[in-house]
Amino acid sequence: MIYFILSLFFLSLLGIIFMIERKLVRLQNGEVLPEGEPLFHGPHMEDLKRDISKSLKKYGYILIVMTIRFYFRSVSLLKSKLRKASARIKNLSRKINTDHPRKKEANKFLKRISEYKSKVRKIGEKIKKEENL
C-alpha cells in the first residue's frame, strides 16, 4: 500500500514538473501569456454546474427509489418471518398442551367443600331476595 501511495506521489510530482517545464520553454521562446488567460482550458463553470445539478438530481431520485424499495422489501420479509415464527410457536404450544393434561383432578375433599360453598352462597342469595321483597 505504501509503495502505491509513493508511486502516485512521484507520478504527480513528475506531472507538475512537466507542466512547469512547458511554461518555461514558452517563456524562453518569447511567448508571453496574457494575465487573464487561464492555464487550462475546460468547460465553462455554468455548464459544469448545470450538468452536475442534473446528474445529482437523477442519482438522488434513483437513490430515494432504491431506499424506498429496500424499506418495503425488508418490511415484507420481516412480516413473513414473523408470521412463520408465530405459526411455529402456535404449533409448539398446541403440541405441549395436547401432550400434557391441562389440570389434574382436584381432591374429593376439596370438591365437596367447593360444592358446599356454592350451595351456601345460593341460599344466602335467596334469603337476601326474600328480605328485599
Structural account:
With 133 residues, the protein is mostly helical. It has 3 helices and no strands. The chain has helices at 2-29, 45-99, 108-132. The longest helix is centred in the middle third of the chain and has 55 residues, at 45-99. It starts with a helix and ends with a helix. The model has no long low-confidence stretch (mean pLDDT 85).
Task: List strands and helices in order, with pairings.
Layout: H1 2-29, H2 45-99, H3 108-132
Number of strands: 0
Classify the beta-strand content into a percent band.
under 5%
Based on secondary structure, the structural category is: mainly alpha
**Would you identify the regions where 5 or more consecutive residues have pLDDT less than 50?**
none
Number of helices: 3
Shape: rod-shaped
What is the helix/strand order?
Answer: HHH
Which bin fits the share of residues in helices? over 70%
Measured distance between first and last alpha carbons: 102 Å
Radius of gyration: 45 Å
Largest sheet: none
| Overall average pLDDT | 85
Notable features of this structure?
3 helices, rod-shaped, mainly alpha, 0% strand, 133 residues
Summarize the structure.
This protein has 133 residues and is mainly α. Helices cover 81% and strands 0% of the residues.
